[in-house]
Design goal:
By secondary structure, the protein is an alpha+beta fold. It has 2 domains: 192 residues, no CATH class; 86 residues, no CATH class. The chain contains 7 helices and 4 strands; from the N terminus they run H-H-E-H-E-E-H-H-E-H-H. The protein has a 4-stranded antiparallel beta sheet with strand order 1-4-3-2. Strand 2 and strand 3 form a beta hairpin. Helix 6 runs parallel beside helix 7. The two termini are 44 Å apart. The structure holds heme C (HEC).
């Protein structure tokens, strides 16, 4: 195997090992980062929902309550307004979602489905728990959810959620008397759940990964090309010339042209050494001839 081939085999092997290790490490890191980014989005959405709820109770409720209406106005309910706002958002971004689910909801559309009920029950079992982050598969792809418990912290909630008798007549006329009652102060009755798609961030992460990998290959190939040209010029070519002359001299052709070593690297040191050896060889030959 030629010197250049040997060096290339070593370099390419080192490169492949490096790429495998860096690839493995950075892919994990990028996926982690993508998840962090999705989680950060989910937190912003959760805060947006909280802002809508607070706006409803601070600004909408006082206005609508001051104008008695013959029918119940769900627009005064923070949970309703937050979910309505997200309904509009979903028209544009169908894979994003915000839900306020309950095990025993006033509005049946808020009934926790199986996985949501499990999240609610996790909160009920562990009152210290303030959030649950998880992933699940949906028809639109993998989705990350951020859930926080809904705990009845104010007595005022019980006006509408304790017994049907206490609730406004207009409300029971609209929602019936069988659901959304029996809640107690301090009880966790449901969960606010934000869902954010992971696909976009994952696609981005693998695109970034491919770019990184691609630039690695390009830079390494260029490096290999330059190194090959340099090695050929500085090492292989002079050594080939040297071995050709050494060949000729060893066959007894003492007229082979001498070299003029260039530079002061190891190869030119070898050439100078060869020149000196050749001169002493010639001298010894001459002495032998004179003796003979
Ligand atoms: C004026 C009556 C009223 C009061 C007071 C009230 N709610 Fe409600 N709540 C409702 C109605 C009506 C709904 C159903 C709204 C809809 O159609 O989405 C609802 C829905 C909810 C939901 C969504 C799940 C479900 O039952 O459909 C949650 C959670 C909730 N309320 C929590 C609370 C909390 C917490 C408080 C106290 C801070 C509170 N509510 C105070 C009337 C009320």
């Amino acid at each position: 195997m030629g010197l250049l081939l040997k060096i290339n085999v070593i370099l390419v092997s080192v490169f492949l090992v490096t790429v495998a290790v860096v690839g493995y490490l950075s892919q994990g890191l990028m996926e982690e980062q993508a998840r962090e980014q999705v989680l950060a989005n989910a937190r912003i959405l959760a805060q947006t929902a909280a802002a809508v709820r607070s706006y409803t109770s601070k600004q909408i409720q006082p206005i609508l309550h001051s104008r008695p209406s013959p029918t119940f106005q769900p627009q005064t309910v923070p949970s309703y307004s937050a979910q309505e706002v997200f309904k509009t958002l979903r028209e544009r971004y169908p894979s994003y979602d915000y839900k306020e689910v309950a095990l025993n909801p006033t509005n049946q559309k808020d009934k926790a489905v199986e996985w949501e009920a499990k999240v609610v029950n996790d909160f009920r079992k562990d009152p210290q728990r303030k959030e649950v982050v998880g992933e699940r598969d949906t028809p639109e792809g993998r989705s990350l959810f951020l859930a926080e418990p809904i705990t009845i912290s104010m007595v005022s909630c019980l006006k509408c959620h304790s017994t049907p008798e206490k609730a406004p007549k207009t409300m029971t006329a609209m929602y019936g008397t069988s659901n959304g009652f029996g809640w107690e102060v301090g009880e966790t009755i449901g969960a606010r759940i934000v869902s954010v798609p992971m696909q976009v961030a994952k696609t981005e992460a693998s695109r970034a990964f491919r770019h990184l990998f691609g630039s690695f290959v390009v830079v390494f190939s260029l490096l290999l090309l330059v190194l090959n040209a340099l090695l050929h010029q500085v090492v292989v070519k002079p050594i080939r010339r040297l071995s050709k002359v050494a060949d000729e001299v060893s066959m007894g052709n003492l007229d082979a042209p001498p070299f003029e070593p260039k530079g002061n690297d190891e190869v030119s040191a070898l050439q100078s050494a060869f020149n000196r050896m050749r001169i002493s060889l010639e001298k010894s030959m001459k002495m032998l001839e004179e003796l003979g």
